[in-house]
């Protein structure tokens, strides 16, 4: 499901792949430990099954995510971020903090807790910590 490249602009290319709400929500959910189709459907944003299927296929076609069959049930796919997907953490981080700086809303309790946990930590340290945390999650999936 690779999309045609309409522009040689790097931003336009990124937006062709990641520029809809759902792709970034799926990537966020993977960073937060969700792994299965059912896990993604349970997110508070309420993605439809057809949109979820389409976005998972798109992200897989660009090698941002991949999956392995569940050990318990071979019909269940366990999704994970590839290295290319893990590289998106700084983008998600910046989008989250841009939202925090610019919108005065009552964020979800998970977001509020995360804001408290990273308070006083440098951006570089946060990136390293979150990458390490996710790579541990991924290693349990792949081993």
Using brief descriptors, characterize the structure shown.
single chain; 143 residues; mainly alpha; Arc Repressor Mutant, subunit A; 8 helices; 60% helix; globular
Task: Lay out the secondary structure.
Elements (H helix, E strand, L loop, with lengths): L9 H9 L2 H11 L5 H5 L7 H13 L3 E5 L7 E5 L1 H4 L2 H14 L6 H10 L4 H20 L1
3D structure, described in words:
Strand 1 (65-69) and strand 2 (77-81) form a beta hairpin. The protein is 60% helix and 7% strand. The chain is mainly alpha-helical and 143 residues long. The protein has helices spanning 10-18, 21-31, 37-41, 49-61, 83-86, 89-102, 109-118, 123-142, and strands at residues 65-69, 77-81. It has a single domain, classed as Orthogonal Bundle (Arc Repressor Mutant, subunit A).
The total of helices stands at 8
% residues in beta strands:
5-15%
Radius of gyration: 16 Å
Question: What is the element string, with H for helices and E for strands?
Answer: HHHHEEHHHH
N-C termini distance: 28 Å
Strand order across the largest sheet: 1-2
List the domain count as a whole number.
1
State the fourth-level CATH superfamily: Winged helix-like DNA-binding domain superfamily/Winged helix DNA-binding domain
The CATH topology is given as Arc Repressor Mutant, subunit A
Question: In the CATH hierarchy, what is the class?
Answer: Mainly Alpha
Q: Please count the beta strands (DSSP E, at least 2 residues each).
A: 2
Mean pLDDT: 92
Shape by Cα distribution: globular
Unreliable stretches: none
State the CATH architecture: Orthogonal Bundle
**Which structural class fits the helix and strand makeup?**
mainly alpha
The helicity comes to 55-70%
Biggest sheet: strands, sense, closure?
Answer: 2 strands, antiparallel
